[in-house]
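S1.2 Input.
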Amino acid sequence: MSPHRTRARLRKAVPAGLLLWLLVFATWLNGPALSAAASAASEAAALARLGEMVLDGKHLRYDPSEALAYFSRAAALGNSTARLRLAEMSVRGISAERNASQALREIEQLAEGGSLSALVSLGDIYARGYAGFICEEAALAAYEKAAGKGNVTAALRLAEIYRYGLFGAEDQNRAYAYLERARTLENAYALYLIGDGLVDRDFRKFGTAQAGLDLLREARNLGVGDADIALAIRRDNRSAQLLPRRQILSKLTELAEAGSIDAALYLFDFYLDPKNWRSRRLPSRNLKSAQDLLEKVADKLEPGELAYRGFLLEVLSANPSAVKQLFPRIETIAPGNRPSLFRRILRGNPNAFFYFVQMRLAKDGLYEGPIDGYLKRRTISAIKDYCEILGAELLCRRGPLSVQTTHLLIHSF
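S1.3 Output.
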């Protein structure tokens, strides 16, 4: 399916104190006669979970300082997840002094101790340049090791790398193989991704579009909302073609009005980025309809997702001078939502995207030209310098608008 986006989460913000009490109480119900050590471990797990909610903007509003406090308390009680999250925050300089080398060693120790989450984190750091360098071989090795031990996230990361050619040429054979691995681990979203690849014909050598529709139905039955949308906007025949634009709008509107948050968010995407939908007669962007729709579903979205979609609307609606003023507010968007945010800004308003890139590179002393959002010689040179600092000259050799280069820029925020 064309729009690449994060799935919706139907949650409202709730007080952190109440959540902590509920988490600890639930643990007590499962074992009220806990020893002191077990009780401390339960409290640490609850604190770490709260920290993740705050850091991700899930259930709670994004607040990196608060997340840091929760993780610090949990780590002091011996929680390994909290140790990992603290190290990840330190690598990226999120509400903490950036100490990439020391934090990276901490993550490596956790991975050596058997943490699959730490292995995936290492893969992300090596693949995205969070520690100030890129190492494709190390990233692939970390993901492969985690996937080989049954980690679904790692298998999906590898599938994405090969499907979209993030490390070079696309390799649909490997992408399909890793999605099949995730599927064997009973991951419902992998079913959706395989079905999506079959109907889009990326995986044509592995099956028919009709087989893709069958997989989408299976994923829908397992609760994958994206699969439900994919089926609604395609013809139920051997070709599985997308419906005409007006019918897609009608289907999405009908589902959204029936209460589907997934449909509402796809409709939001359609209003903001109609050219991303494979239609010969392209509609114009409709920011007013997108704003109205977001207001209707605001109370059903996770705080982090609502914040980033609202910010996206502001960026796409802003004049050039206002875009500059929005740059500091990037820090108010949960890190997990920033890649989706910047992909959409790049598609919807490339000038705004390069405004942000210029300001990001200027902050690091790599760009000294005017902040105007134009991809001219000095901006291209600064992007090239950024790639060289990361050790990613080969990845960036296809130019500043290549999939590989924009992927690195998107993850630089």
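S1.4 Remarks. Confidence is low (pLDDT under 50) at residues 1-10.
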